[in-house]
Amino acid sequence: MNKSSEGRGQSTWAGPQRGETALSHQATDGGLAESDQASVKVLELHRYAHGLVITIDASATTGDVNAGEALRAGMTSTAGGPGPTVLRFRAHLKGGATASTLDHVLAPATEPEPPYFAALGGPGFKIDENRVSSRQELWLWPTPEPGGLDIEVSWPEFGISDAVVSLEVN
Fold first, then answer.
1. Chain centroid to CA 83: how far?
2. Model's pTM, two decimal places?
3. Are 42 and 167 in contact (CB under 8 A)?
4. Helix residue ranges, H only, the chain
5. SS3 of residue 151 by DSSP
6. Cα 159 from Cα 22, distance rounded (Å)
7. pLDDT tens for each residue of 64-77
8. Residue 42 pairs with which residues in a beta bridge?
């Protein structure tokens, strides 16, 4: 079990420590996935001592349907799992390990088995009539080895399925 930093109650697996400065920052070319309705881009990477923050920008149009109604209606599938409007990310690490933002519905109460991949602060969306957008920070723990990292995204409702971008992590 990881110990909390400086007695503040935050575990190193759950996100950057309060007041911690990133060891490195990388802007990316932004490419990840696009469809006729949506785009998802990786904007930047922030490497910390215990993990990696991946900043994502996502937006989609819902046609004639109100974006809020479309998101709510598609959050849960009829089988009880995540519905087609849920934005999904999977990290593929060196050595074959993978982690998905769907692995943990809520932040676990105890340290999960690594790797752990989740949205920091939740996947909030801005809704404007028939457009939905989100800027999210994803946390990958532990810090991946320097080198390549693949991020896979799916957003089924908006025509994005299993698109992969390879990122060079310094």
1. 16
2. 0.87
3. yes
4. 67-73
5. strand
6. 34
7. 888 888 877 777 77
8. 56
Q: Is 65 in contact with 132 (CB distance < 8 Å)?
A: no
Q: Residue 116 has which token pair?
A: 């752990």
**Residue found under tokens 């001592």:** 49
Amino acid in the structure at residue 68: G
Q: What value does the mean pLDDT of the chain take?
A: 86
The pair of three-digit structure tokens given for residue 81, joined into one six-digit string? 């799992």
- Region of 83 (left: φ > 0; alpha: ψ -120 to 50; beta: rest) is beta
Q: Which of 104, 133, 134, 138 is CA-nearest to residue 119?
A: 138
Contact 37, 61 (CB under 8 A): yes
Whether a cis peptide bond, with omega within 30° of 0, leads into 142 is: yes
State the residue for tokens 């982690």.
99
Residue 91, token pair as written in the block: 């990290």
Q: Which domains does the chain have, with CATH numbers?
A: 22-169 (2.60.40)
How many angstroms separate the first and last alpha carbons of the chain? Answer: 27
What is the average pLDDT across 90-116? 89
